[in-house]
Amino acid sequence: MELNGRPVTPGELGSLALYNYGHFTTMRVEDLRVRGLSLHLDRLLGDCRVVHGVELDLDRVRHLARRAASAAPSPVIIRVTVFDPELDLAHPAAKARPEILVSTRPAPPDRQPPSLGVAEYERDLPQVKHSGMFGPLLQRRFAQAGGHDDVLFTDARARVSEGPTWNIGFVKDGGVVWPGADRLNGVTMRLLDQALRRAGVPSATAEVDTGDLAAMDAAFITDAAAGPRPVRSIEGAELSLDHPLLTTLRREYAALPADPL
């Protein structure tokens, strides 16, 4: 873990640990290449304007991320977190001086298709990938304590939105439906949607409520660390794991070109 390209000290992490005020993006880096790199960088730039009210030096971000990835076995998961170590809890509107924290972890192994519980929960400012993870992780904990692997969120109108750290898509009538409730426009979701359209697979965004779930042929979740993964069940209702479109999803995502970091 490095702050501005050098080992970070515990004191420098104080504001992030105590206030959890910042934003980030997570990238899977293989041979110093990243799928959707420009989307990750655009996210950091836009979120920095919202969270800190200042511009972010993306060339520096790339340099620091590349430095960390070069020192780690490939593939590696790189998280770039932007936060202000001098944040004043009493005066968060003071001019920010955000800095760049880069952390690494091994790429996850292939995982079994998850079972999902359902919970009513809406993230603060869902369009921003911010570091406020208490609520999402608490809901994940509740779901796992109830016998599920993870949790799917709905809003107060029972409209499906997202998961704690992933987007969800549904397969219906030979096409893909992305939920239209407020949620993060994930990089992997956007890349996959573009790839599906190029492959001639119908894709649309629409409201999906909990009453619609039984009519879905299959479901999958997307994140940058693992790509698209099929969902085994939602609230105990089993879903297809061998639908042909799931194979298409994985093939089209694997074929996406990656950009030099």
TrEMBL record:
SUPFAM superfamilies: D-aminoacid aminotransferase-like PLP-dependent enzymes. One of its GO terms (molecular function) is transaminase activity. Gene3D superfamilies: 3.30.470.10, D-amino Acid Aminotransferase, subunit A, domain 2. Pfam families: Aminotran_4 (PF01063). The keyword Transferase applies. Keywords: Aminotransferase, Transferase. It comes from the Bacteria. NCBIfam families: PRK09266.1. This is Aminotransferase class IV.
